[in-house]
Amino acid sequence: MKKMIFVLALLLMTAPAMAGVKLTATTGSTAADFNLVTISYDGNSTGNIRAFAVNITVNGGKVIKEPTDVSGTYRIFPGTITIWQNDINDPGKCYAPATDPGALEGPGTSGMTLEMGSLYQMGVDPNPPPTGILCKFRVSGTITPVVTITEEVLHRGGVVMENTGVAANPVFKRVYGCHSGCQNKGDATMDNAVNYADLNALRATIFKVASDPAHNPCCDFDRNGAINYGDLNLLRTNIFKPC
Fold it and tell me: Which fold has domain 9-175?
């Protein structure tokens, strides 16, 4: 196996957090992929990203399945990598083992901790691309899940820039397919009905920014980027009515 010089920057606990890097959870837009989640990154305005350490969780008792389409750039996985005499014999898994300090339980549960570092020789190999996909995974069930991404700083250093002098707040987003045919009439839960469950979802989200990752953007029934009285009026008009 080719020997390479690499840095496991996830272990650099003194490095600052990412500088405006965007991490986005996107769900599929077709019936077959409503439960397919893509975790992507965008560091266009920040410089090279050396490593990612983030927690991924899903709501409602749903279960995360084994990740696929794992990045070929961020392919150093400190929790499970096997190195022998400077050779990488096995890169391991892109998520931390549940037995590691601070790690979520992983696939088969509602949360996993991604830890993914880049592998290249600075000044020799091409830099990591500024945007890309970290991985994809499916979630149990067929309804679009609520996906939350948070930085894992305490045990793994969070998201680390190559330039360790750069520091700024991370940006986490989720984008839903909002696939229900009733969504623009008040269906926040994507079950093709408008009822009290949608009212409760709206009550928890109203006056929040629709793109805020802490809230359900499918409550933006009129799709104007804000969740407010206009959305409440749409729900009130259509509640308990067939779509």
Answer: Immunoglobulin-like (2.60.40)
